[in-house]
TrEMBL record:
Pfam families: Acetyltransf_4. Residues 1-147 form the N-acetyltransferase domain. This is GNAT family N-acetyltransferase. Keywords: Acyltransferase, Transferase. GO terms for molecular function: acyltransferase activity, transferring groups other than amino-acyl groups.
Length: 147
């Protein structure tokens, strides 16, 4: 099941986020060490999950464990309100290669359409071939390579 996360999901999100930072550190700007040093991380996560400029979708298994997430960020500035950003995409290693990532991205894209975004960006590590392939199949195009 995929649904929007709420502040009640903050602890589950935080646990999965820490796992993501350990399993795929190359895919995130924040390191695991930086994350665990944060003060009141659950309060910050709960705040992010209720923000007007972001929505986070979570995938849950039959045991109600959070096994995948993706966040759609929007811009507050009027000149950039037409843009959105997909960030913090992660699927637990035991649940990969079964279409879950595609479903999460599809939910983010659908929300972007609902709020009438004109442009949707994401970043991916150049060596992450499965993710690059998925994003290409979902309609994303490479427009730059950051070194």
């Amino acid at each position: 099941m995929i649904r929007l996360l709420t502040k009640e999901d903050a602890e589950k999100y935080w646990d999965l986020r820490l796992q993501a930072l350990q399993v795929n550190p190359e895919a995130f700007v924040t390191t695991y060490e930086e994350a665990v040093r944060q003060k009141n991380p659950l309060d910050r996560v709960a705040s992010n999950l209720t923000s007007n400029t972001s929505c986070t979708f979570g995938a849950f298994n039959e045991e109600n464990q959070l096994i995948g997430v993706v966040t759609l960020l929007t811009e507050e500035k009027e000149a950039y309100k037409h843009k959105g950003h997909i960030v913090a995409m992660y699927v637990d290693t035991q649940n990969r290669r079964n279409g879950l990532a595609r479903e999460l991205i599809a939910n983010a894209i659908q929300r972007a359409r609902e709020i009438e975004l004109e442009q949707l960006n994401l970043g991916v590590v150049s060596t992450n071939e499965p993710a690059k392939k998925l994003y290409g199949l979902m309609g994303f195009k490479t427009y730059g390579i950051e070194k």
